[in-house]
Structure formats: C-alpha cells, structure tokens
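Sequence only, no structure available. Ideas?
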Amino acid sequence: MLGKKKLNDEQLIVAIRNGDKDAVVQLYKDNYMAIRNYILKNSGNKDDAEDILQDACVAVWEKIKNNELELKARLSTFVFAISRNLWLKRLNKLGRQSHIDDIHTENMAVVEDSFASENRKIVMKMMDKLGTNCKELLLLFYFEGFDMATIAQKLQYNNADTAKAKKHQCFKQLQEHVLNGYNKQDLI
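Reply:
I predicted one. Tokens follow.
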C-alpha cells in the first residue's frame, strides 16, 4: 500500500471483498497496536498478539468474503472483539486466565454484557446521544483497548487521571440514557 491513501471502513470492506491483499495488510496494521497492548497487558507477548491478530483478520476476511459481515460499529471494534475472544479462549485453554488484568477485564465484562446481540443495538443507539468526545473515549477504551495514557494523548486531556475521570462521567451518561430509554426487561 506504499503511496496509496488509507481506506475507510467501507472502502476496506469492498477492497477485501474484491481480493485486494493490500486491504488485508491495512486491516492488520490498523489494529496491531490496540491488540498488542491488550494482549501484553493480559499475560501475553508480542508473538501472541501477532498470532491472535492474524487469526482475527482471517475471520474478518472470511466473513466479508461470505457476505456475513454486519457492522454495527467501526471495523476496528469488530476486530478487537474477535481478538479479545480468541485471546480469552487461548488463556482459558492454557489455564492462565487468572492472570488477566482485573480492572480491564471487569470493565470489558460490563461492556460485553451491555453489548449482547440485541442490547448492542440499544447501547449503540444511546451512544449516538452522547457528545462526540464521550463516544470516542468510550470506543477507544472499551472496544479498541487503549489505556488511559494513550486516550489522554489522543483526545488531548491533561493526563491519564483526567481521561479516567471523563470516562467514568461518560459511562454514567450512557448508563442514564439506556436506563431512561428502556425498561430493565427490554435489556434482558
């Protein structure tokens, strides 16, 4: 892809569907840092990250080729979710799951529960009610796996503590929107 401009999600999907190998390379490169950071924080190493991301890219490629890909969020969010699930399965198989970063896993568990098949649509709809900064912050943390220092830098907050406080506020806003818009039974 040397000299080519970076493709957006829709263009990337079309290019992959049309057999463009450079598009698969872009998919890998676009997601490498988030997956590497997540796996390094959760009992893995660089080789593990590369293996998991390759497997995730193959899974995405197969879904695109078979016209089974239904995106409800950004493509990177989908790749991260697949990678995370593959990594958790591998850790569980190796019996190393107890070493996972508890704070990160606890936060991901909250999101994972919230984003069960039907609930995912509801929460994504409610995220649209958040401001751009809140939506971006929550996507960066919960779906792309960035740490607070990286998020602070990307969103130009003073430091990681400021980003963490803002994430808490944004999550509370999202929670209020969901609870005000739906009955608890709608979400079960």
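The first helix runs from residue 9 to 17.
Hope that gets you unstuck.
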